[in-house]
Amino acid sequence: MQHEESSFTGVAGTKIVYDVWTPDREPTGVLVLCHGLGEHARRYDHVAARLGELGLIVYAPDHRGHGRSGGKRVHLKEFSDFTDDVHTLFSIVTAAHPGKDKFLLGHSMGGAIALSYALDHQADLKALALSGPAVIIATGTPKIVMQLGKIVGKYLPDVPVENLEAAAVSRDQKVVDKYNADPLVHHGKVPAGIARGMITAAEGFPARLPSLTIPVLLQHGSDDRLTDPAGSKLVAELAGSSDVTLKVYDGLYHEIFNEPEQEEVLNDLIEWLRPRVTGA
Questions:
Q1: For 140-155, b where at least 16 C-beta lie within 10 A, e where not — what string?
Q2: pTM for this structure?
Q3: How far apart are CA 248 and CA 130, in angstroms?
Q4: Which of 19, 81, 101, 224 is catalytic?
Q5: 243 belongs to the catalytic site
Q6: Phi–psi pair at 262, nearest 5 degrees
Q7: What phi and psi values does residue 39 have, to the nearest 5 degrees?
Q8: 205-247: per-residue pLDDT in tens?
Q9: 58 by DSSP, 3-state: which?
Q10: I need a surface site. Which of 44, 153, 193, 260 has the fewest CB within 10 A?
Q11: Nearby residues of 121 by Cβ (< 8 Å), 6 or more positions away
Q12: Which of 127, 117, 28, 35 is nearest to 80 (CA)?
């Protein structure tokens, strides 16, 4: 599989770096992969390699404020900045691979980005896959806390809110150690601006989900402490699509692609995609 790095100018002139993995076979389609909060696209090399088995070319951006891309670290003005950047990347994909089917995969915060984008552009997508998507606010969070979070996030977006729990990423200590040592991963507190963006997006999903009609795969670890598995169940229940698959993996933590059972999880993803990828 061949790999290359490139970039484009995103919203407000921000440099967005993205990776492209091209399989050593005739391409069958293109998949855009959206990573999660605080991380970056190169943590998905092994996922791209598996997707290449189906002949899929994989494009993956480092979201603004993440990894190698520009912008203040994990800073966000509006959630639409993320989806607008993804739209620019899809424009690049379409120009480079005219006529190829397009797929979208998102993990965690990237799952929220992918779902939001799919709801607006599903006519351009063949299918959507979500891994541990951050699509609801933690169960039991008081409404007043969410409202305060949105107000602070709007007027004081750089105020630090809370740290992500590294130990909750995976049950594999080697994965956690590598995560903690990765200079491209954000290890500080999450600022209020990005928290506001996530809350706002999550609040809008229930009313929008019945309009989602493309095939959807949802994969979530039952012991995920960073995103609530109830979010994946909500998408499965409310989506208007007649082709929705939900897989909850008993005992797995947040990064199901980096758990000891990652082969099972990735096999499920590949086998779900296979009949939907022409020529796979």
A1: eeeeeebeebbebbee
A2: 0.95
A3: 12
A4: 224
A5: no
A6: -60, -30
A7: -110, -155
A8: 999 999 999 999 999 999 999 999 999 999 999 999 999 999 9
A9: strand
A10: 260
A11: 87, 90
A12: 117
Type of residue numbered 220: H
201 pLDDT tier (thresholds 50, 70, 90)? very high
How many other CB atoms sit within 10 Å of the CB of residue 41?
A: 28
CATH 3.20.20.220 applies to domain 2-276: no
State which amino acid sits at residue 66: H
Task: Label residue 259 exposed, middle or buried (CB < 10 Å: 0-12, 13-18, 19+).
Answer: buried
Query: Which residues lie below 8 Å from residue 245, measured CB to CB, with a gap of 6+?
Result: 216, 217, 218, 272
Residue at token pair 């929008």: 208
Task: Answer whether residue 98 shows pLDDT above 70.
Answer: yes
Q: Which amino acid is at 208?
A: R
Q: What does the DSSP assignment read for 221-269?
A: ETT-SSS-HHHHHHHHHH---S-EEEEEETT--S-GGGSTTHHHHHHHH
User: Is 87 one of the annotated active-site residues of the chain?
Assistant: no
Give residue 65's pLDDT band: very low, low, confident or very high (50, 70, 90). Answer: very high
Instruction: Tell me the three state secondary structure of residue 139.
Output: coil
Pairing status of strand 15-22 against strand 56-61: antiparallel
| Distance of alpha carbon 68 from alpha carbon 64, whole angstroms | 9
Q: Which of 63, 107, 186, 254 is catalytic?
A: 254
**268 classed as catalytic:** no
